[in-house]
Design goal:
The complex is a heterodimer of chains A (151) and B (143). With 151 residues, chain A is an alpha+beta fold. Chain A has helices at 6-17, 23-30, 34-46, 79-90, 116-127; strands spanning 50-57, 66-74, 95-102, 107-113, 133-146. In chain A, a hairpin with a 4-residue loop joins strand 3 and strand 4. In chain A, helix 2 (23-30) crosses helix 3. Chain A is elongated and about 55 Å long. With 143 residues, chain B is an alpha+beta fold. In chain B, strands 3-4-2-5 form a 4-stranded antiparallel sheet. The longest helix of chain B is centred in the N-terminal third of the chain and has 13 residues, at 24-36. The radius of gyration of chain B is 20 Å and the shape is elongated. The chains are: A alpha+beta (151), B alpha+beta (143). The interface between A and B is large, with 62 and 57 residues. Strand 1 (50-57) of chain A pairs antiparallel with strand 1 (40-47) of chain B, so a sheet runs across the interface.
Chain lengths: 151, 143
């Protein structure tokens, strides 16, 4: 586990919002020199605290009007079928994220589609036909907000 | 361009132009236009909470008591104030709201759950999904 101080926390918060800011500009706001800021960012990256960068796009403006979260329960259990399911589900382009969970479902999927008929097509042709897929519950996303978390 | 950028968000505008086979000037103008239109919202760092010692992640699926007129707003306003809540989503379906919660360990989770989550207003039902592993994380669009 990586220990961070208050300045690291502020840096992380700022970078989570906008990762394109230069070390110089960030440093000026936090009262650090450019090299000191750069070293801190470097350290956070090397420790894996910053896992990467993500391009944020407006899905709706690009024609993807529907995001659905699917809870999937596997019908068949066993190691082989888990791997087969994971490989097959990961390959579906409309499936943005796959999480293995414990509880009511085995997997949680985030699926984007152009509209409801398009979602139905993905569900019927791609999801329902996955190896081992059993019960599926769908919830249509209405709004979403990411919070800074305990920083 | 968005396809390349999505796959490698750290690319500079120059590198992006090269991949897409256009001049840097043209690429820069296109990016500026997509930012103006709000198609491109920005590039953000992804924080790995586990690396910071938050090893537990739980998804709470919550049904609200909709007989209360302001249930959604009152619930969301309070939920945003809990520092361990990192994501809030609202849904049309069997579940009304989902909260992503992180905690240092199970004891910490239990404490957050009991003292902060159960204290949120207008909850009628809660189901918890405990996060085991991320199999696919690219939130890229199938462009």
């Amino acid at each position: 586990m990586t220990e961070i101080d208050a300045i690291d926390a502020k840096l992380l918060r700022a970078l989570a919002r906008d990762a394109t800011q230069s070390a110089g500009a960030l440093g000026r706001r936090l009262g650090l020199s450019q090299p000191a800021t750069w070293r801190r960012i470097r350290r956070l990256e090397e420790a894996g605290v910053i896992r990467g960068r993500q391009l944020r796009l407006d899905a709706e403006k690009l024609g993807f009007g529907v995001t659905v979260f699917l809870g999937v329960k596997l019908a068949l259990r066993g190691r082989v079928s888990l791997e087969d399911f994971e490989r097959a589900v990961t390959a579906i382009p409309e499936v943005q994220t796959v999480e293995h969970v414990l509880g009511l479902f085995d997997y949680r999927l985030r699926v984007v589609a152009r509209d409801i008929p398009d979602f139905e097509r993905v569900l019927r042709r791609r999801i329902m036909t996955l190896p081992g897929a059993g019960e599926v519950e769908a919830n249509v996303l209405l709004s979403e907000e990411r919070l800074p978390g305990p920083l | 361009m968005l396809r390349y950028w999505q796959a490698e968000p750290s690319l500079t505008q120059g590198e992006l132009a090269e991949r897409a086979g256009m001049t840097t000037g043209r690429a820069t103008r296109r990016i500026a236009r997509m930012q103006e239109l709000g198609v491109v919202q920005g590039v953000g760092a992804v924080i790995d909470w586990a690396a910071l010692g938050y090893s537990v992640e739980v998804s709470l699926r919550i049904t609200l008591d909709k007989t209360q007129g302001n249930a959604f707003d009152a619930f969301l306003a309070q939920a945003r104030k809990v520092p361990e809540v990192i994501e809030v989503q609202t849904f049309l379906g069997r579940v009304d709201v989902r909260l992503s919660i992180i905690a240092r360990d199970m004891a910490h989770y239990q404490q957050v759950y009991r003292s902060q989550i159960l204290a949120l207003p207008h909850i009628s039902e809660i189901e918890a999904l405990m996060h085991v592993a991320r199999i696919k994380t690219s939130k890229g669009l199938p462009l």
